[in-house]
Amino acid sequence: MWFYLIALAMTLAVVWVRKRYSYWKDRGIPYVEPSFPAGNIRGMGRTKHLSAQMQSCYQELKGQGPVGGIFFFINPVAIALDLEFIKTALVKDFQYFHDRSVYYNEKDDPLSAHLFTMEGTKWKNLRAKLTPTFTSGKMKMMFPTIIGVADEFQKLMSKEVATNGEIEMKEILARFTTDVIGSCAFGLECNSLHDPDAQFRRMGKKIFSFANGRFIKAVLAQQFRSLARTLRISLVDTEVSEFFMNAVKDTVKFREENKIERNDFMSLLMKLKNDDTANGMEALTIEQIAAQAFVFFLAGFETSSTTMSYCLYELAQSAELQDKARKNVLDSIKKHGSLTYEAMQDMHYIDQCINESLRKYPVVSSLTRSVSKDYKLPNSSVILPQGTTLIIPVYALHHDPEYYSDPERYDPDRFTKDQVAKRNPYCFIPFGEGPRNCIGLRFGMMQARVGLAYLLKDYRFTLSSKTPVPVKISPRSPVLSSEGGLWLQVEKIVS
Asked: How many other C-beta atoms are found inside a 10 Å radius of the C-beta of residue 32?
């Protein structure tokens, strides 16, 4: 009896999975043939990074329509293939695609409910509240704080180069950006430049440390979000959560008791906490403040440090490009008398180098959107049902030879004004696009310019034997991060 019941259950399961895997075929959408149980993400986190898998799917399906079909485990996912459709989804028809389709749990994991993950009206209201923080005027006010940290960074580099000319640049740049974010987001001296085991740096490492169990947990929670919330799944490590929550509570309490105001992110968040009429919306709670400070830290230190390290890695392979970048820094400083905000804004070739690094190594390799209501594809009778996840394969777009000739070659001149004007802007979207683009774009670019300017004006970089060419991407990292860091030979320039 039990044998027949088990056989029946297995037969029904096989039929259900086969039906599930015919999802895109039944709708007339071209798709990549899946395999059970991983679908089209077999090996993700073990042998392949998500960027490589999405690039493979994109290349197989491109030219067959605005979207194609793939599967994350047994979940059907749409992948955008056409630049005009990407523009439509991110901008023109944004009302259908305003949510990111990223797991969060506001009740059991309050730090996960931040601007990046929140949905619907809550996201819209929060974005409106936080937008004034990232104007060019606010960036100029924060600039002296970044320069203060950069001066300490300069002292550290001098010691490191004198001791050992071979340096792991990703780690040392992460310590720089950790101290920048700590100062601007929390108003605290993190001291990770002079103490690599400082708490903020330790917590930063822990956020991006994905051991096997945690990686699988994150992937499953993402794919089965409702079930994960029912099971009260938390993705932020308990120690990390407690540390950031306490850091924010202590900072807010100290500032309120001593009536301290600073030109930083925390001061704006405190104003939003204390003003329940801000933009006609509810005031922020202390948990919401902590969540926003957390994501600012999370997004700010890792993305900028990774981008700067890739930029130096590429410049280390070309003395000509490196000299050109260094000249741009020195000319701007000479023109303005010192490394002022205006001098930084004048470093156009440095901007080109950063943009080319973001093209070749987009830190966020894919964008995700969730269909908020049934959506009819343009010039088609096909409907993407509410709840469908849409992947925009940023890495694949940035490496598409149709848009960038010889895409594996590093060439900052792809981002001269003339070259940018010739291209469809939606083939370069490292910060997203439309109403839900990266709110911290200006800040990220500012700290990257400052970090690179301080390094290039004083040091020459060449490749280390410890760093392979091409660089090996860590399959387990949620961002496009190099395996084993990025080691470079660093030599002090004697003037």
From this structure: 18
Q: Which amino acid appears at position 466 of this protein?
A: K
At residue 492, the 3 state secondary structure works out as strand
The 3-state DSSP class for residue 306 equals helix
Q: Residue 312: what are its φ and ψ, rounded to 5°?
A: -65, -40
Interatomic CA distance for residues 305 and 170, integer angstroms: 6
Angle formed by the axes of helices 348-360 and 319-336, nearest 10°: 140
Q: What is the DSSP string of 59-89?
A: HHHTTS-SEEEEEETTEEEEEE--HHHHHII
What is the reported pLDDT for 228?
Answer: 82
Q: Is 464 within 8 Å of 166 (Cβ atoms)?
A: yes
Determine the Cα–Cα distance for residues 223 and 214; give it in Å rounded to an integer.
Answer: 14
Contact between residue 489 and residue 464 where contact means Cβ atoms under 8 Å apart = yes
Tokens found for residue 337: 């008398």
Contact criterion met (CB below 8 Å) for 329 and 14: no
Binned average pLDDT, 10 residues per bin, the chain of 495 residues:
64 73 93 90 84 96 96 93 97 95 87 90 88 86 92 95 92 93 83 87 78 68 80 85 90 89 82 64 82 86 92 98 98 97 96 98 95 92 92 98 98 98 97 94 94 98 93 88 92 88
What's the CA gap between 366 and 54, in Å, rounded? Answer: 8
Token duo for residue 85: 């459709």
Model pLDDT, residue 278: 47
**Residues near 176 by beta carbon (within 8 Å), at least 6 away in sequence:** 149, 150, 153, 193, 305, 451
CA distances from 188 to 115, 191, 194, 250, 251 (A): 22, 9, 15, 11, 8
List helix spans (H) across 391-440: 394-398, 417-422
Tokens 């500012």 -> residue: 446
The pLDDT of residue 399 is 98
What's the CA gap between 248 and 232, in Å, rounded? 24
| 198 Rama class: left (phi>0) / alpha (psi -120 to 50) / beta | beta
What does the pLDDT read at residue 4?
Answer: 62
What gap in Å lies between CA 41 and CA 34, rounded to an integer?
A: 9
Helices (H), 232-386: 238-258, 265-274, 286-315, 319-336, 341-345, 348-360
Give, in order, the Cα–Cα distances in Å from 257 to each of 88, 252, 260, 461: 49, 8, 8, 48
CB-based contact 488:316 (threshold 8 Å):
yes
Nearest to 224 by CA among 211, 236, 233, 215: 233
Say whether pTM exceeds 0.90. Answer: yes
Can you tell me the distance from the alpha carbon of 180 to that of 188, in angstroms, rounded to the nearest whole number?
10
Q: Do 383 and 72 contact (CB within 8 A), yes or no? A: no
Q: What is the DSSP letter of 303?
A: H
